[in-house]
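Backbone Fold Data
Goal — fold tokens
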Amino acid sequence: MPDLTIEQFEAGDVDAELFDHEAHVRIGWLYLQRFGLSDAIRRFEVALQRLTAKLGVPDKYHATITWLYLLLINERSRTDEDWHSFRARNRDLVDDSKTTPGRFYSNARLFSDEARAHFVLPDKLAG
């Protein structure tokens, strides 16, 4: 779903079958480009919760994973690059939805009810 816009995402006009991990990362990158970190987190979180509710899967929303990816995207972004350049430099964020969080969180912490509902700090050093 490479052409998804922020406006479509916020309206919930998303094909769930095409909204894969890379599409999540790309839309997060777009939010950070447009709004900056704090507003991007707030807006993205609200839109993603609204979308998962609309799709009938509100339990799929995970606050800590959402924040983690937005924080990593923000940290790695460069002001002078487009999505394709960012994607090429950050294949680990784009291709890997499973092991990236595990570099920072134990399974017990990451899959806790608290981490699902609210951002929690990592309990592991990235390695």
